[in-house]
């Protein structure tokens, strides 16, 4: 302890050193107090920071009110104490900023209010509030100015938004009145829609009725068009027939006189006709036998062809049978030719007696043909044959392909014109209507019916050979139906005339038959020529059969097709055989008819006067009929055209009315929805109007809209001002500087007594440093509290200051004692490093990676943590305890290392001179 006492005694004896010691104790206090008080509360004195304001704004009209945002802003700034606002011209403000008089210039442009009023324009423009700063004058001043400018922007935005809100609420008030009016109008619309809906229901019902009626009208118009087409066709046909009838009646009237003279000659010719008919019927019997033999041969041929499929010899046998059948056919044809020749001879004899009457009889025949075609043939034949013709057409369509091969044979062997014979017999004069009908029945039911079928089949074969596809049976059926309708109309038109002249017609029929000998003669000649053609065809068939017999090997491959054709031929010959048999069986009726024809000529002579009178009446009526029919036919096109237009119009009416009815129903649905929507709209508009009416906007409302948010700051810990925030860093830094100055000034390497052990030297310097460090901490802490520093925990505050001072003191003393001046330099370098790496000013995340790396290893880091906890209690007790522990460890470690260093120096008696002055000479005695 002696050396410790002596250390202090020497200190008090050396007045300069003692004064230095005392001054060193106040260095931390001076450093901390001056630095902290200079920046104690800079943000609390921003009202002293001069800022220039230049107002160039021009007021504008907005919704009938004057908007002068610039002037309003200036007025607000005059009462704002956040900054020292100075309102200047642009030139003065620029000069003041240049001279450093102002830290910022805030410029309000001339279109500031104008842009504020453009919020509802198509292209609104933002309000531009510009500011200009001079950071070189003072960066912190620039930062403060910028914060003021941002706050100014917020205030302007709030003020303008308030103006917008006032204008909007004015409009809302006006719109509320509009809503009420709209609600009233919507109610009226709803009432109108209800009435419209009721009217639409009536319209829809009537339109539906119209649409149904239009469809009925359309169908009737179409039916009328079809019926009228048939009617006009019938009228045209009737007009043509009327013209022919008129011409025929005139011819008939001219031939009545000569008819009377030829009746007697007709009577004699009828006798010869009966004889010729007998000869003709004999030939018919022969023809029937030949056809029967041909049918038998055809059957054998068909059987032979079927057998030929398996055996050629069987085919040869069938051909032989076919040859035999053809011979029989030839014999029958010869007999038929003889009978036909006899018939021609008888007719020639009859014709010789009527040579002088031929011209007049021909005129009478022409008129009768026209009359017969106009009435009997069209009315009886068409109506009587229509059903049979329909059946024949159906059967014909089914068997076309089969008849093609089978009827070829008939065509080549029976090519006589039976239809021509029928026409000639119909035109034969001298036979009564009753007798003529019997002849017609006998010939038409037998010869003509079957021969007509054969002739029709032959003609069909010719048509099929030129192209089967050209036959349109459906079209034929349609034409027959139309012909039937037309004939019915002609018959109705002729009813009056026919009723008055019926008796005359009977007489005409009887008279007409008187000229039939010449017609029969022509028919007989045609029959003979046809039979001869059949003979020639049969001869060719025989030759072809012989050729077939010689070419049996070649025909073997086509036997199947020939068998099918033979079957078709057999079918055709079967029909022809049946017709021949019927013709033969009815020959007696033909002979009987010829006999009756002879008797009818006698009656004809008695009826001629009556005929003459009837013909005169008929001539007059036919002239009137022809004129009326021609006039009716001339007007038919107009009628057809009008009906066509009527059909088209009815179709359009039907379509349009249907669409209109559908649209009306859709309109009804839409009106229902519209009525419901209108009701809802009325209610909602009324509610909206009431809500707008109930909305009361006040200044609080406008302020709420202008500034709807409020920033609430909750402090975890309270730091009063910038001085309190910076105090932990400055206090710690000041103690380090004090310790550094102490180890620079005080002669720590010198001893107060010689011959003392090292630990006494260590204790003497330790006591000196301990007292100095504690004194620095207490003085700094106490005076700073007196100057306004308010620690949260005063015990922790002073404890931190003392431990920090001791840790710094012995750390620097260790460096200075061990390394002398180089050690002191290291202590200064450590000070510089701690200034940047301890995190005393800015948060460590804002600094570089190097400083974050060294931050945990710096003593000042933990001193600042401990001071912050003692001042604001924000770091937590754990951080404080850890920091105090680290500082204590540093202090104890430095004290221990200091003892080791001093012991080493004592042993080595290090006599090197100090680099500072003699006061630092190691081991030198103190004066």
From TrEMBL:
Its main location: membrane. The keyword RNA-binding does not apply. Keywords: Membrane, Transmembrane, Transmembrane helix. It is found in: Membrane. Residues 21-167, 686-900 form the ABC-2 type transporter transmembrane domain. The keyword rRNA-binding does not apply. GO terms for cellular component: membrane. Signal peptide: none annotated. InterPro entries: ABC2_TM, Phage_infect_YhgE_C, Phage_infect_YhgE_N, Serralysin-like_metalloprot_C, T7SS_ABC-Transporter, xxxLxxG_rpt. It comes from the Bacteria. It is a multi-pass membrane protein. The chain crosses the membrane at residues 726-745, 766-788, 794-816, 828-851, 879-900. One of its GO terms (molecular function) is ABC-type transporter activity. This is YhgE/Pip domain-containing protein. It comes from Listeria monocytogenes. The lineage of its organism: Bacteria, Bacillati, Bacillota, Bacilli, Bacillales.
């Amino acid at each position: 302890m002696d050396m410790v006492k002596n250390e202090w005694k020497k200190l008090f004896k050396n007045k300069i050193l003692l004064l230095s010691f005392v001054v060193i104790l106040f260095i931390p206090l001076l450093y901390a107090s001056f630095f902290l008080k200079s920046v104690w509360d800079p943000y609390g004195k921003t009202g002293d920071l001069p800022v220039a304001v230049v107002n160039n704004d021009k007021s504008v009209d907005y919704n009938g009110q004057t908007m002068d945002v610039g002037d309003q802003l200036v007025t607000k700034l005059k009462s704002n104490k956040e900054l020292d606002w100075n309102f200047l011209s642009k030139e003065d403000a620029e000069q003041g900023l240049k001279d450093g008089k102002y830290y910022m210039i805030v410029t309000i442009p001339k279109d500031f209010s104008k842009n504020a009023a453009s919020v509802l324009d198509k292209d609104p423009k933002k309000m531009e509030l510009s500011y200009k700063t001079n950071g070189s004058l003072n960066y912190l001043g620039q930062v403060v100015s910028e914060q003021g400018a941002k706050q100014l922007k917020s205030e302007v935005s709030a003020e303008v938004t308030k103006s917008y809100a006032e204008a909007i609420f004015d409009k809302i008030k006006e719109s509320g009145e509009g809503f009420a009016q709209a609600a009233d109008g919507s109610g009226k619309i709803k009432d109108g829609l209800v009435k419209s809906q009721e009217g639409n229901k009536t319209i829809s019902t009537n339109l539906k009725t119209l649409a149904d009626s239009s469809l009925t009208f359309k169908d009737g118009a179409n039916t009328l068009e079809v019926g009228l087409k048939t009617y006009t066709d019938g009228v045209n046909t009737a007009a043509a027939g009327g013209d022919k009838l008129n011409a025929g009646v005139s011819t008939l009237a001219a031939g009545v006189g000569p008819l009377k003279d030829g009746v007697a000659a007709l009577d004699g010719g009828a006798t010869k006709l009966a004889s010729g008919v007998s000869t003709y019927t004999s030939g018919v019997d022969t023809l029937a036998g030949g056809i029967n033999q041909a049918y038998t041969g055809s059957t054998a041929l068909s059987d032979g062809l079927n057998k030929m499929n398996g055996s050629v010899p069987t085919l040869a046998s069938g051909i032989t049978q076919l040859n035999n059948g053809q011979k029989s056919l030839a014999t029958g044809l010869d007999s038929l030719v003889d009978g036909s020749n006899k018939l021609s001879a008888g007719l020639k004899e009859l014709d010789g007696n009527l040579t002088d009457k031929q011209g007049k009889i021909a005129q009478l025949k022409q008129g009768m043909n026209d009359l017969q075609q106009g009435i009997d043939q069209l009315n009886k034949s068409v109506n009587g044959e229509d059903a049979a013709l329909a059946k024949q057409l159906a059967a014909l369509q089914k068997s076309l392909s089969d008849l093609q091969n089978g009827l070829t044979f008939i065509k080549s062997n029976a090519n006589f014109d039976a239809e021509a014979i029928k026409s000639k017999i119909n035109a034969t004069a001298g036979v009564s209507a009753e007798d003529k009908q019997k002849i017609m029945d006998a010939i038409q039911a037998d010869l003509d019916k079957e021969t007509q079928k054969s002739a029709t089949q032959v003609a069909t074969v010719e048509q099929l050979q030129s192209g089967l596809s050209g036959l349109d049976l459906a079209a034929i059926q349609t034409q027959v139906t139309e012909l039937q309708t037309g004939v019915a109309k002609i018959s109705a038109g002729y009813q009056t005339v026919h009723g008055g002249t019926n008796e005359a017609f009977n007489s005409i029929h009887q008279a007409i038959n008187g000229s039939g000998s010449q017609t029969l003669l022509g028919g007989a000649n045609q029959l003979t020529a046809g039979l001869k053609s059949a003979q020639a065809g049969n001869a060719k068939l025989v030759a072809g059969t012989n050729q077939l017999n010689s070419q049996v090997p070649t025909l073997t491959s086509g036997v199947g097709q020939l068998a099918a054709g033979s079957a078709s031929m057999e079918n055709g010959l079967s029909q022809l055989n049946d017709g021949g048999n019927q013709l033969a069986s009815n020959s007696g009726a033909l002979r009987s008819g010829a006999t009756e024809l002879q008797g009818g000529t006698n009656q004809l002579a008695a009826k001629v006067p009556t005929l003459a009178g009837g013909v005169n009446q008929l001539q007059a009526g036919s002239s009137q009929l022809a004129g009326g029919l021609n006039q009716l036919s001339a007007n038919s096109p107009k009628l057809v055209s009008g009906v066509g237009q009527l059909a088209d119009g009815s179709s359009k009416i039907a379509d349009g009315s249907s669409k209109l009815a559908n649209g009306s129903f859709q309109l009804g649905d839409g009106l229902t929805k519209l009525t419901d929507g209108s009701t809802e709209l009325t209610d909602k508009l009324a509610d909206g109007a009431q809500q707008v009416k109930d909305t009361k906007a006040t200044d609080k409302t406008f302020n709420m809209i202008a500034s709807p948010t409020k920033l609430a700051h909750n402090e975890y810990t309270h730091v009063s001002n910038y001085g309190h925030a910076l105090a932990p860093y400055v206090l710690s830094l000041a103690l380090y500087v004090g310790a550094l100055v102490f180890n620079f000034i005080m002669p720590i390497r010198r001893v107060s007594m010689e011959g003392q052990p090292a630990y006494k030297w260590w204790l003497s310097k330790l006591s000196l440093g301990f007292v100095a460090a504690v004194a620095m901490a207490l003085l700094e802490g106490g005076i700073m509290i007196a100057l306004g520093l308010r620690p949260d925990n005063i015990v922790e505050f002073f404890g931190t200051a003392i431990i920090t001072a001791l840790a710094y003191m012995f750390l620097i003393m260790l460096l200075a004692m061990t390394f002398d001046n180089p050690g002191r330099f290291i202590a200064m370098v450590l000070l510089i490093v701690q200034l940047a790496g301890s995190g005393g000013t800015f948060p460590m995340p804002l600094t570089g990676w190097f400083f974050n790396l060294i931050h945990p290893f710096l003593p000042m880091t933990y001193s600042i943590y401990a001071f912050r906890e003692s001042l604001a209690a924000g770091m937590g007790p754990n951080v404080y305890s850890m920091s105090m522990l680290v500082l204590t460890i540093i202090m104890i470690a430095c004290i221990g290392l200091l003892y080791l260093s001093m012991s080493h120096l004592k042993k080595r008696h290090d006599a090197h001179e100090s680099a500072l002055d003699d006061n630092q000479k190691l081991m030198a005695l103190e004066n």
